[in-house]
Amino acid sequence: MPQKKMNQTDPAHAFTALWSLVERLRGPGGCPWDAKQTAESIKTYVLEEAYEVADAVERKSPEEVCHELGDLLFQILFMASIYKGSADFDLYEVLETIHKKMVRRHPHVFGPVEVNSAEEVAANWEKIKKEELGLSEDARWPLEKVPENLPALLRAHRLIERAAKHRLLAPADEERWRNLQDTWGALRGVVPEGDRERIATTVGEALFDLVVLARKWGMNAEDLLREKNRQFIEETKKGHGQEDKK
Q1: What's the gap between Cα 121 and its chain centre?
Q2: What is the pLDDT of residues 57-93, one digit of tens each?
Q3: What is the pTM of this model?
Q4: In this predicted model, what pLDDT tens digit does every residue of 118-170 receive, in sequence order?
């Protein structure tokens, strides 16, 4: 049976068509590989596709971003289909839950609340989150909700960001800079000793201090190292005569 031509300007129609495709792949007579997948087996693909989106953004390629967003959306729908199959929740619940949450988290748009700055929006957001969780202002340590599965540098950045918001960091840049200098000094002392445990601990401290300094200067250490990784690849290509031909 020939497929109907998709309305090129109707995202709702396209979304429904993609969801139907996912259900077809995982349903009776579909793809055996797709049908046997679980949330555990698919979660890695979700993470990988999210990173592909970030890479495409950093390459400043709208066409690649478009393609990678499609890949990520497919993995999200695929996982929703898995949970629907086990009767935990369905796609409607996913969409309805996030829609209600965003309306609730933006009372300055959908309600009577007035704000004068992005900082006030962020403060309201945190307050509403606590209300949703049924927590008092001090019932839960503020750093505990930063996801453990984030890449280490990004998680450090988020931990520091949250710590700063709750005034848990030393206020002066100079103090953190001195800490880093002390750490480097300690590293010079332990390396000749060959004590791997102390070296590992000291390197970790140095990395964390660098993340703090990067954030204080308005930078994200995860982004900085990703860019350095990219530069390193290009440097090695040039060093071995493998420059990109333009």
Answers
A1: 21
A2: 988 999 999 999 999 999 999 999 999 999 999 999 9
A3: 0.67
A4: 989 988 888 888 788 765 455 667 787 788 878 889 999 989 888 887 777 76
Domain assignments of the chain as residue spans, ordered by start: 12-103, 114-140, 144-246
- Just give the CATH number of 144-246: 1.10.287.1080
Closest CA relative to residue 129, chosen from 147, 111, 102: 102
Q: How far apart are CA 106 and CA 103, in angstroms?
A: 5
Is 159 in contact with 143 (CB distance < 8 Å)? yes
Concatenated DSSP letters of 27-89: STTS-HHHHH--HHHHHHHHHHHHHHHHHHHHTT-HHHHHHHHHHHHHHHHHHHHHHHHTTS-
Taking the C-alpha atoms of residue 214 and residue 118, their distance in angstroms, rounded to an integer, is 22
Element (H, E) at 229: helix 221-239
Question: What CATH code would you report for 12-103?
Answer: 1.10.287.1080
